[in-house]
Specification:
The complex is a heterodimer. By secondary structure, chain A is an alpha/beta fold. Chain A is 26% helix and 27% strand. Chain A has a 5-stranded mixed beta barrel. Classes of the chains: A alpha/beta, B alpha/beta. At the A-B interface, helix 5 and helix 6 of A face helix 2 of B.
Amino acid sequence: MTQIKLTTPLSDDVVEKLRIGQRVSISGTIYTGRDAAHKRLVELIEQGKELPFDPKGQIIYYVGPTPAKPGKVIGSAGPTTSYRMDPYAPKLYEVGLKATIGKGRRSSEVINTMKEYKGVYLTAVGGAAALIARSIKEAKVIAYPDLGPEAVHELVVEDFPVIVVNDTLGGDLYDEGIKIYAAK
Amino acid sequence: MGNDVLESFKGAYEAEVSLTGKEILQQLVKNAEIACEEKVPMCQDTGYAVIFVELGQDVRIEGGDFYEAINEGVRKGYTEGYLRKSIVSHPLERKNTGDNTPAVIHTKIVPGDSLRIIIAPKGGGSENMSAIKMLRPADGIEGVKNFVIDTVKKAGPNPCPPIVVGVGIGGTFEKAAQLAKESLLRELGEKSKYPDIAKLEEDLFEEINKLGIGPQGLGGRTTALAVHVEIYAAHIASLPVAVNLNCHAARHKEVIF
């Protein structure tokens, strides 16, 4: 299947052209965040304070990697389940975030926010954490080191493989997949 | 991960009709190979350390604190093995303990003079999609099937399908949950010793794989790699059913002293 190559930061133009089911390979800088970090990021937004990174055009990868072995950039780093970030995600799309990477379904609120603010939701293969780590070339903690695996990392990725699950039209690849393959 | 899981990926690859599904199963095989070659975890969620202890009644453990010794093993293993520390000390305050302790420890006293310790690290994603329900005896086998299938359907892509479905039927509220967890320790596809329950496992396996959820929930026929059911005596008023889902990273190892 053909792959669309994207480099961060992403523009509205590029994001609006993405459609569910498309394979995308991402290069550039992306940021990690999961449960505890999201709570803090959204508290900062609500207080009108600056985030540890500029979210405009950026991607948040929902991941808590394993520690890097000596000589390695990062440990295993597959996606975590995204619905846990649903209570926080709309606020981040509202301040300019363009995409999130995780696994599993998003709430209708998140899907509607992505339609309104031109954002997408992408999935990486859950459990393929050793394979995915190969596309991560640099990693450093930029915020909340006290959270351990939940700290916010800045990652430099090269051809990081994802699939578009929700696009700016409100499409949902999980619904489409079941429609095709459920026994009639 | 055991060879049983790797073999089942390969079998599922042959049987899968969805191209995306096939592509994902192929990636899971490749991932397992890389993890093995580089000695790194196949999944970043290296789990809650769930430990099953079978203590022979003729064994005497002298001095110290047995559970603390197990926790020390977990601490050492997760730190020296570069595994993720995924445990918070208080469920509401949520501060990471930093060494993946404490473990969840289940102990059984059994006849004999040996000590068996099984470690089954459990990922949070699939654990979160697990469910328990106290059915009425009148709901019978159909009620059980409906609840199991409904749980898998609701979970959809979240628990990282293809999954292993562990089911506990009978006992009390907590016994059913424990049976479901214990069923996940079986080798993949090993059948129940009771013919009627083995049939139930087969029926559920077939029904679940008709749901269309597929690898990673992106559509396909491989939703479950296996369904394991354990049973126990029930109260005249009760029919407890627990469903414990496991992602495809179905890991467990044991040592016997």
